[in-house]
């Protein structure tokens, strides 16, 4: 019996063979890779991935689809983790992970933030997402798409948008254009904040009122900031600051006692 897409899981199944082939070529899986597929659905990516892999692990929240996958593929080729990807401990799935998937639009941002915590275990990530989200992920400072998602992800990953995917590539077709992004964790030597917690708090605060000048959106911290020393104008807005400037500002406020580790 044909599986009916379930709205509560944000299911839109990829059916375009050309797009599927382009995604798999972009991933370029090698036989011994440790690949984790999030949301395998009806196996559009699962099947071609397994043609290049010894083993694949799939995370699937829909119990009917999880059961279907177990019937289709032997355990030694496919391990099915039945559950919500937002609750999965990816650190338990191995090291040097390559994570892939057609992510449900309704959980894409929370899932991306969830995966930041496992970046030390990851080689790369290839995701299909709403194009609007990917445009925000890779946006440069000063653009309208640049925001909290841009800063937080760019502080941890090198990212590139690969190509767009039209609605008709799915069944049922979504109302938006999708795209595919490649994410590679930055090396150990990357510039990093002294406190990740303080950095996150600053970025959230700065973009909560993104149209305001920083001296106003950060008003109760403003007198503690060495604007000139940091090379930041107090009249700047959050969307004008680079990731490096956010890190420097975070470290400065941490040293001044305005933010806690």
From TrEMBL:
Key word S-adenosyl-L-methionine present:
yes
Residues reported in the UniProt entry to bind S-adenosyl-L-methionine? 12, 14, 39, 60, 84, 102
Q: Which Pfam families match?
A: RrnaAD
The entry's cellular-component GO terms read: cytosol
Query: Sorted alphabetically, which InterPro entries does this protein's record hold?
Result: KsgA/Erm, rRNA_Ade_diMease-like_C, rRNA_Ade_Mease_Trfase_CS, rRNA_Ade_methylase_Trfase_N, rRNA_adenine_dimethylase, SAM-dependent_MTases_sf
Occurrences of domain Ribosomal RNA adenine methylase transferase N-terminal (ranges):
19-187
Q: Which UniProt keywords apply?
A: Cytoplasm, Methyltransferase, RNA-binding, rRNA processing, S-adenosyl-L-methionine, Transferase
Which family would the database say this protein is a member of? Belongs to the class I-like SAM-binding methyltransferase superfamily. rRNA adenine N(6)-methyltransferase family. RsmA subfamily.
Protein name, UniProt field: Ribosomal RNA small subunit methyltransferase A
Q: Which organism is it from?
A: Pollutimonas subterranea
Gene that produces this protein: rsmA
